[in-house]
Design brief:
By secondary structure, this protein is mainly α. The chain has one domain. The chain is built from 16 helices and two strands. Helix 5 packs antiparallel against helix 10, helix 8 packs antiparallel against helix 16 and helix 9 packs antiparallel against helix 16. The longest helix has 27 residues. It is globular and about 55 Å long.
């Protein structure tokens, strides 16, 4: 099997695991801020017990340490808004919003990594917009805030995916994951400590913050169980594996594969959370349009040369091309 073929299998396995994150986020009762704080710091604590990670950290320059930490902040912002969207709407809506990532990435990735801008990718990304319109029309008005926060979360995904593509050659995937989880967790901890000076509209929302007196309380036992599952099976394993896959796929291509996540999330939400009662046919039709884009991409990608490997790493100054 080629490296690219193996990378496709890896990214689709990651997407399958990520399909459970929205469901678990709905099952966890604590708001987004403590949820993300526990998730990131649990993963970082586990990885800091691995000697290989410390060796990787010791080899990184100060500039690249700072760069990975910056990406970690973006990951933290993504998860805060993603779980906020779940609490403000539901798991199906939050997962469907993630399918807008390619719309942002087709512009952001060329800027960040130096990859050539491809007009067909922009057109393909824009095909999700009618689906988004149907998704909005197929949900109650009370979920509109969740949709807006979910799309903002997709923007954060686009930014950190593009920078991960640029930085992935600088260290191994476990070291990169450790830095991003630790810095993201510390950033969320800072956000939690700013409770008193953040806008009232944010702190008054139970979707993001609990009561100040309970902000740092130990979660209930059932939440702790789901947080452990979320940290190990839905974060540590797929996050590190996806970074390895990015060595052989563009951030845009991997993001389109991630468009399968709503399929898994919606099916699981119906089976586990009975969410179909909250949504109408327009939502599912719109979600179908959005997810269909992932099946179109492999066909258009065959008509052009795909740039992988060191092109996303301008500091190396080398390019490796594959294609038919």
């Amino acid at each position: 099997m080629t490296d690219t073929g193996r990378a496709w299998l890896q990214i689709h396995f990651c997407v399958f695991l990520w399909g459970f994150t929205a469901i678990i986020g709905k099952l966890i009762t604590i708001p987004a801020v403590p949820l993300v704080l526990w998730r990131m710091l649990l993963v970082a604590a586990m990885l800091l017990c691995v000697p290989r990670v410390w060796r990787g950290l010791s080899r990184l320059s100060g500039r690249h340490l700072a760069a990975f930490c910056g990406v970690g902040v973006m990951v933290g912002l993504h998860w805060l808004t993603f779980y906020g969207a779940i609490k403000l709407a539901n798991a199906s809506v939050a997962a469907t919003c993630m399918a807008t990532v390619p719309v942002f990435l087709c512009v952001i990735e060329p800027i960040v990594t130096g990859r050539k801008f491809v007009l067909k990718e922009l057109i393909l990304g824009l095909l999700v917009l009618p689906g988004i319109a149907l998704v909005v029309g197929g949900t109650p008005d009370s979920m509109n805030a969740g949709i807006a926060v979910g799309i903002l979360s997709a923007l954060f995904v686009s930014v950190f995916s593009a920078y991960n593509k640029r930085l992935v050659y600088r260290t191994d995937s476990l070291t990169a994951t450790t830095l991003e989880m630790l810095s993201g967790g510390l950033f969320v901890l800072l956000v939690a400590n700013l409770y008193g000076i953040l806008p009232e509209q944010l702190t008054a929302s139970a979707a993001f913050f609990p009561e100040p007196a309970t902000l740092f309380d130990l979660p209930p036992p059932e939440d702790l169980f789901w947080l452990a599952v979320l940290a190990i099976a839905c974060t540590l394993l797929p996050f590190a594996l996806s970074l390895k896959a990015l060595r052989h796929l563009s951030a845009y291509a991997s993001a389109l594969a991630v468009n399968m996540e709503p399929i898994y999330a919606i099916v699981l939400a119906i089976l586990i959370l009975d969410e179909q009662k909250e949504l109408n046919a327009a939502f599912y039709f719109g979600a179908g349009i959005i997810v269909a884009v992932v099946f179109i991409y492999p066909y258009i990608s065959r008509t052009r040369t795909t740039v992988v490997g060191d092109q996303a790493d301008p500091d190396r100054g080398q390019q490796q091309r594959t294609g038919k």
